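Quick start: read one record
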Amino acid sequence: MTSSFLDFGPVFEEWEADFGRTYVVGNDPLKHKLRRDIEEAFASGKRYFHEHPEITAAELYAHAQQLAEQAGWEYGGPIAGHLIGIFPHEKIPGDKVTLYVHPRNPNRMRLPDAFGRKRHWILEIHFVDRSRQIGGFYEELLTVG
């Protein structure tokens, strides 16, 4: 039995997209629990983002870690999301923090971009069980809907 995730990053005209899901083949109940848990954690993380208008990227990352712990998993990613938008998206050379939902990013996520436009964020949920060598991933647009 396997679990796999698919991560798509298509570009539609000048807009980039990013979408990821975990799928389980077989009947392993733990892997099916993992898939359900990451979907529920994404929904919870999105609600948390919308309920906290001044949230920073570091706060959302900490919340994603808490969701993993509450569900009995380890958070498996160095980030919990990133900016997305007009392609190529905003980049700062050498910056691996401020454009990501990162534990060291103190910036408010609703700050506008350099041109005063609303930023759009992707939320990524990465749960793992290192001892069983399994993990799952769920990724989708956070700032719309």
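The beta strands are 2-8, 11-12, 15-16, 19-25, 74-75, 81-84, 120-129, 134-141.
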